């Protein structure tokens, strides 16, 4: 004797209904009205890009600044403590 399904849930029917080409999707009167939400400028990637509009530009500029600071020569007017004449009169 096969086990009885007390809940009435049928996995085969669920998988068939979940597929995009299912009969249920074709009969859904709201499916056409909902498709615009996930196409064109409203795709998941485009919505994510618009959350932080200047993040890409800021990241590139900050990386360029860090590279410039790393490879630029040191400042010639350093404030070292061993130099005579600069700050000795302020005791």
From TrEMBL:
Signal sequence segment: none
Pfam short name (any one): NDUF_B12
Keywords noted in UniProt: Electron transport, Membrane, Mitochondrion, Mitochondrion inner membrane, Respiratory chain, Transmembrane, Transmembrane helix, Transport
Major place of residence: mitochondrion
Locations listed in the record: Mitochondrion inner membrane
Family as reported in the entry's similarity comment: Belongs to the complex I NDUFB3 subunit family.
Domain of life: Eukaryota
Example of a GO biological process term: electron transport chain
Record's function text: Accessory subunit of the mitochondrial membrane respiratory chain NADH dehydrogenase (Complex I), that is believed not to be involved in catalysis. Complex I functions in the transfer of electrons from NADH to the respiratory chain. The immediate electron acceptor for the enzyme is believed to be ubiquinone.
A single GO cellular-component term on record: mitochondrial inner membrane
Bilayer topology term: Single-pass membrane protein
InterPro entries with a match to the protein in the record: NDUFB3
Membrane-spanning parts: none
The protein's name in its UniProt record: NADH-ubiquinone oxidoreductase B12 subunit
């Amino acid at each position: 004797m096969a086990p009885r399904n007390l809940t009435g849930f049928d996995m085969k029917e669920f998988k068939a209904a979940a597929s995009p080409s299912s009969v249920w999707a074709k009969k859904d009167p709201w499916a056409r009205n909902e498709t615009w939400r996930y196409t064109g400028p409203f795709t998941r990637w485009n919505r994510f890009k618009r959350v932080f509009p200047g993040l890409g530009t800021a990241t590139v500029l900050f990386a360029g600044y860090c590279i410039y600071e790393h490879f630029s020569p040191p400042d010639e007017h350093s404030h070292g403590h061993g130099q005579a004449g600069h700050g000795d009169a302020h005791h």
